[in-house]
Amino acid sequence: MLLSEIAQAIGAELDAPADRSIESIQSIDRATSDALTFLAAGKQPPALDQLHAAAVIVAPDVERDLFPKEVALLRMDNPHLGFALALGLLSPEPEAPFEDVSPQAFVDPTATIGADVAIAPGAWIGPRVTVGTGSVLYPGVSIAEDCVIGAHCTLFANVSVYAKSTLGERVRIHSGTTVGSDGFGYAKGPRGSVKIPHRGRVVIGDDVEIGANVAIDRGVLDHTVIGTGAKIDNLVQIGHNCIVGPHSIICGQAGMAGSGELGVGVVIAGQVGVGGHLKVGDGATVGAKSGVTTDLPAGGEYLGYPATDARTARRAMAILYRLPELRRHVDKISRQLDELLGT
Description:
The chain is built from four helices and 37 strands. By secondary structure, the protein is α/β, with parallel strands linked by helices. Strand 19 and strand 20 form a beta hairpin. The model has no long low-confidence stretch (mean pLDDT 95).
């Protein structure tokens, strides 16, 4: 594509000595003379003799003199977003290597399959399932009875969707993920644990992306809900009756116990644990490896175990790492007191 076409498509202002053709998009340290790259906001470019890209997406305030004259600049407020859009233009996702409904897939006669749906060999579509227009189901996908799969969804290999689950439009679910399995709920009986039946559903909104090997449990009576635009990384556990608010992000190896709730635009970093029946308010961020043991107000940044205000947590951590030094001082003062007191 021409640089001018890319700039127009991603909403950038082109600052270039001349228009030119771009063949690929590459990292800034390895970009070649026919490649586009980007410089994240607040970062410094590599040394001039190491920069070989044809063009760089940069923030509006980046100085022109930091780059060789022959390197074109595409200026926009969010260079990272520009990178994502440009990568989609220059390297679009490959189409599925199959089309239509394979005769080697099982599709129940009562299922409703929309136009332009592609179902791979080995997929299983149960009774009364609805699959929306343009959706793609890869090999090994299993859709149980009474599920609704919205338009233009992509379910990669070996995704399992349990009965009565609902997916909105443009949902992407990666391999090995399970949607709608029973939650972990038991009542104590005279002979041990008695399973609590789970009769709720999983409801997933539009434009949700779910990574590989994620487990999303169905509710007991009410539903487990994943809000519109939410993004869930690999190896995440979402317990029964949880609510993940719209546009929230949950990073890898995090987990939510039953009936936890995330507000709108919450960020849960890697390996965070959210306790049962707790709420994290709108726009809050919980740092990696934190443990949420109480409700967290909206808009805050939290860290540690138990998760608390991030500034307080960082000060506590700084003190923690000074404990050996502080102990030596205390021991020294204790010996001096002993000498003064003659004990």
